[in-house]
Amino acid sequence: MLDDISRNLARIHARIESAARRAGRDPAEVTLVAVSKTHPAEAVAAALAAGQTVFGENRVQEAATKFPGLREGHPAMRLHIIGGLQTNKARDAVRLADVIESLDRPKLAQAIAEAMVKENRRPELMVQVNIGDEPQKSGVPRQEADAFLRACREEWDLPVIGLMCIPPAEGDPRPHFAALAAMARDHGLSRISMGMSGDFETAIEEGATLVRVGSAIFGARPQPVGG
Ligand SMILES: *Cc1c(COP(=O)(O)O)cnc(C)c1O
Fold it and tell me: Per the similarity annotation, which family is this (predicted)?
């Protein structure tokens, strides 16, 4: 299984490269975020050994048990928090993460700003946009994104570097990817996080600079009990 991780990473890199070239882009513009949620520290170690340095976790608690030990000996490792974040986890996220991709509401922005002062640490931030305007989905609603981005800068002085989205599970993701890329351009934001195992090549064609790939690297995740 650990051999598979290195082979899977090589395959994903080849696919990133051809998708970028197809779109007339430099493959070096695209960073692979290896999403290791639910997989053990050994799987992350295998990916590190294969040269992967950027990882994504969606739960702060899980990242806190897995990553601090792995950082020793791997100073280049970067951890992205990509999952919905409760305000009471903001301080742990600020302490652990290099990038928080799931900033999506004023209360969280406030909590992160306060945590940054307390921890004396400023991870980079990305604003998650609910690009399909789906009820129940995290992410700032599209029509509120402008005001929220402005507030992040002016009210909380937060280091926002880009936008992130998870398009609706059903239907063609391409128009949603295009919409997020356009929104990032309009705001002068250079980093665009979109695309997962099933659709990262489409996301690259539409301008992704970060793709978040889990199962295609680490294998299927166990189904959560009780769904
Ligand atoms: C789990 C997860 C991914 C990776 O999903 P795969 O389909 O396994 O590649 C990407 N982004 C977020 C926010 C996730 O929670």
Answer: Belongs to the pyridoxal phosphate-binding protein YggS/PROSC family.
Ligand 1 test: best mutation among 200, 212, 213, 217, most atoms within 8 Å of CB? 212
Output the CA 212–ligand 1 centroid distance in Å: 6
Q: Is 153 left (phi over 0), alpha (psi -120 to 50) or beta?
A: alpha
Q: What is the reported pLDDT for 1?
A: 66
- Name the pairing type of β-strands 124-130 and 99-103: parallel
Q: Are 97 and 78 in contact (CB under 8 A)?
A: no
Q: For residue 227, is pLDDT > 50?
A: no
CA–CA gap between residue 44 and residue 16 (Å, rounded): 20
Region 2-218: CATH code = 3.20.20.10
Query: For the chain, which residues make up each domain, given as ranges?
Result: 2-218
pTM for this prediction: 0.96
Half-sphere exposure of 30 (CA within 13 A, CB side): 31
CA distance 77 to 70: 9
Q: How confident is the model at residue 32 (pLDDT cuts 50, 70, 90)?
A: very high
Give dist(CA 105, CA 151) in Å, integer: 10
Whether the predicted pLDDT of 162 surpasses 60: yes
Nearest in space to 45 (alpha carbons), one of 23, 24, 70, 26: 70
Rounded mean pLDDT, 31-60: 96
Spacing, Cα 118 to ligand 1 middle (Å): 30
Ligand 1, closest atom to CA 212? 10
